[in-house]
Amino acid sequence: MAGGKPLNVLFLCTHNSARSILAEAALNHLGEGRFRAFSAGSSPRDNQQPHPFALAVLQEAGYSTQGLRSKSWDEFAGAGAPGMDLIITVCDNAAGEACPIWPGHPATAHWGYPDPSEAQGGEDQRRAAFRATLQAIRNRIEMLVNLPADKLGRLVLQQSARALADR
């Protein structure tokens, strides 16, 4: 984070409807201006929207859902896209896919979470799966945002973010 400029973080998943959306909102809330979060999917479905339970649990947690939308990672690989400092895959499918060549060669990490949209049961059980996923994401994000500045420099950012995957 040079000169007070926030670190740009892109969270990737397959459809960009649940885990990556949760992570984007959580980091934008918890990052307190030191981080700017974005999310995208490797292959969002036509007319894909954020999962209603994702939006509901974010609102319950007091996180803004304004501007959240499902989008393709192609939006972040082309000219004119914001430069990313860190790209984090949050689902195993996206982690195994061939990613675009990201401008600026950002640091990368994988923080895998089960897909809450695959939870079985009634509405209460399915909503609980989204809450649990948000809490797991929040735990790692809190560690990320509390890293000392020397752990956020370009050369050590990847190592720092990957180490958080083990926690």
UniProtKB/TrEMBL annotation:
InterPro entries cross-referenced by the UniProt entry: Ptyr_pPase, Ptyr_pPase_sf
Record keyword Acetylation present: no
Domain of life: Bacteria
Pfam families cross-referenced by the UniProt entry: LMWPc (PF01451)
Keyword match Nucleotide-binding: no
One GO term of the biological process aspect: response to arsenic-containing substance
Keyword terms, alphabetized: Arsenical resistance
Domain Phosphotyrosine protein phosphatase I, chain residue ranges per copy: 7-147
SMART domains: LMWPc (SM00226)
Protein name: Arsenate reductase ArsC
Annotated source species: Ramlibacter humi
